[in-house]
Amino acid sequence: MKLITSVSFIALSVQVFSQEKPAYRVFTSEGKRADYTEMMKEISKADIVFFGELHDNPVAHWLELEVTRSLFKEKGKNLVLGAEMFESDNQLLVDEYFQGVYDASKFEAEVKLWKNYKTDYKPLVEFARENALPFIATNVPRRYASLVSRKGFEGLEDLSPEAKKYFPPLPFPYDPEVKCYKEMLKMAGMGKDTSHVNLNFPKAQAVKDASMAHFILQNWSKGKVFLHFNGSYHSRNFEGIIWYLNKHNPALKIATIEAVQQDEIESVAKENNDIATFIIAIPASMTRTY
């Protein structure tokens, strides 16, 4: 009897401790299970690929680098990288660093870098530099986004011609009914009446989206793949940056990857269905980078 009990306990222990602990799962927009190879095969057909990241998630950042490497193997010099995390007025610094004008310490001292640059974005920048790939600073300078938040798009009108090089030509379209901008107003109003909320709040997001679309289009040409890294909100539901791209060129083939956190990752949470071409589900218990 003791032997049977011991064997049963061992069998149960093996069953419990042999469960897999995957760091992520890949799903299609319809919620069907996919894998990394299937995802790469599909997105490599696109003109522009968006990786909507979770800024503080190490799995998302690791996958960004892996996706970059995989696309480079497929596309070689026809790959272009770009990122929200670099503002358009820093493009000269990026270009000079890639040309060897100065070393990394000087570059990092002068360019506006996010606090997690060294762990999360430097590997992407260095990969581009080492392989002579363009790396495009696509975001509007934050001072101009702040200006829009205070004064609306009209605040940009009085800027100098030099300043206006760092965002798309005025006037650019804006639709407050686009879901992501409506949601921003609701968030600002804590879900209540938004009549007292600053209506320029989502416009500050829109000038970022419009700018990123503008600089993506300036640096993409037929036959190339532009891989863009941004916070998930900028490309979720094919809105944000993509809304602006479609305004300019609806014929573009666009693929999106969206990183999401879930308590369990064996299936896609209902709220995460259809938000992207591929959904990367990551355990909510995953360590954060900051």
What does this protein structure show overall?
Helices cover 42% and strands 17% of the residues. It has 290 residues and is an alpha/beta fold. It has a domain at 21-144 and 211-283: Rossmann fold. Strand 1 (25-28) and strand 2 (33-34) form a beta hairpin. Helix 7 runs antiparallel to helix 10.
The CATH architecture of one domain comes to: 3-Layer(aba) Sandwich
Average pLDDT metric? 93
The fraction of residues assigned to DSSP E strands is 15-25%
Q: Give me the Rg, rounded.
A: 22 Å
Features:
11 helices, Rossmann fold, 290 residues, single chain, alpha/beta, globular, eight-stranded mixed beta sheet, 8 strands
Task: Give me a quick take on this structure.
With 290 residues, the protein is of the alpha/beta class. It has helices at residues 2-17, 36-43, 58-75, 91-98, 104-110, 117-130, 142-151, 154-157, 179-188, 201-219, 241-248, and strands at 25-28, 33-34, 48-53, 79-87, 135-139, 225-231, 254-262, 278-283. Strands 2-1-8-7-3-6-4-5 form an eight-stranded mixed beta sheet.
Topology diagram in text:
Blueprint: H1 2-17, E1 25-28, E2 33-34, H2 36-43, E3 48-53, H3 58-75, E4 79-87, H4 91-98, H5 104-110, H6 117-130, E5 135-139, H7 142-151, H8 154-157, H9 179-188, H10 201-219, E6 225-231, H11 241-248, E7 254-262, E8 278-283
